[in-house]
Structures are given as C-alpha cells and as structure tokens.
Design brief:
This protein has seven helices and no strands. The protein is an all-alpha fold.
Length: 150
C-alpha cells in the first residue's frame, strides 16, 4: 500500500496545471485501454506534447494498464461489448471443447464485441479519471499550499 500511496502522491505533486496533469493522466489511461498491448502507450506519449498535457502524468496514466492489470481491463472490455450486444460469454465447457479452428472462430467472432467494449470503456474511464485527478490535484495543492503558508 505504501507504493501506491507514493505513486499517487507523485502524480498529485507533478508540476503543471491541474488541467494538464489530469489531461495527461486521462490520455494515458484511456489510450492504454486500446486492446493492442503497448500501442496505446506509444500513441498517448506521442500525442501528449501536441495536446499540451503533462507528459509524466501521461506516462503514469499508461502505467495503470500493465501486464498485471491488463488482462482484467481487456476482459472487462470484452464482457461489456458482449453485454451491449446481448451475447453471452462462452461457457467453460464450450471453451474446453474447442480445437485450433474453433479457437480461431471464437477469436474472430469476439473482435466486434471487444471493439465495442473498448469504444465505450475508453472515453468513460478517461473522463472519470480526468475528473478524479483534476479534483485531487486541486485539493492536494490547496492543502499543501495552506500547510506551507502556516
């Protein structure tokens, strides 16, 4: 828990405007949800200077979706897409019965739901993270400036 607290404190204490820090973080976390590993991180870091958002915050945002958490995020996107399309998840029994061709067919049939889930999750999570980081940075600065002035 100490590492997470240190990581959050580092994010909140970054130089730049609250909008720049929040925008960078939201850009990083949002584009990291693109279901192609590392593509989102590279795109986010390339766009950060063009959008004039905080580059370290962008990098920290990309770190949210990592090899440990990525599978859960991507599974959530697939589940969301299937739910929005009214399609059920395959059962474990169905999955165990698949051969190589069956796995390929399953994979290709899941691309649409996966893309739909990502298309909904990316702006939703980016918007939520922008709001949360913006409010947190403003509060952090208010609290720490008041503490320094006292």
């Amino acid at each position: 828990m100490g590492r997470v607290r240190t990581w959050v404190a580092g994010l909140l204490a970054l130089n730049g405007t609250p909008q720049g820090v929040a925008g960078g973080f939201a850009l990083g976390v949002g584009l990291s949800l693109i279901p192609i590993p590392f593509a989102g991180m590279l795109i986010a870091l390339a766009l950060a200077p063009l959008l004039k958002v905080n580059i370290p915050a962008t990098y920290l945002g990309t770190a949210v979706v990592n090899p440990v958490t990525g599978a859960a995020f991507y599974a959530g996107e697939l589940y969301l897409g299937l739910a929005l399309m009214g399609r059920p998840l395959p059962s474990w029994a169905d999955l165990r019965a698949l051969d190589g061709a069956g796995w390929w067919d399953l994979f290709t049939s899941m691309l649409g739901p996966f893309a739909l889930g990502a298309a909904v999750a990316i702006p939703t999570i980016a918007g939520l993270s922008y709001t949360l980081v913006y409010v947190a940075v403003r509060q952090w600065r208010r609290t720490h400036v008041a503490a320094k002035d006292a």
